[in-house]
Amino acid sequence: MPLGYRLPGGYPDGTEGHDEWGTTMNGVDPVRLDDQQLMKELETIHRTRHDTLLYGSNDALRAHNMRMAQLEGEYLRRNPRRPVAAGRTRQGARCRKHAES
Q1: What share of the chain in percent tops pLDDT 70?
Q2: Stated pTM of the model
């Protein structure tokens, strides 16, 4: 990655010279977690998100983003037909907006 490259979210890349970064800091590969472990990991990472955003270093936030994307991606892979609440869609949001008017 070129020096000064900005990762998604605008975080400067500070990993030059750290070849092991991303392999040792991110925990167990989500594919290896059973469903219960995956849900526990997701609950934990979502619970810690706000503090990491407000008080974490760029490296901590970058690691958090990467781990969250890995865990959420694995959840979505395992649950392609997960239930979606009508109110969480664009159409549902539009219905709420019109009902409030």
Answers
A1: 72
A2: 0.66
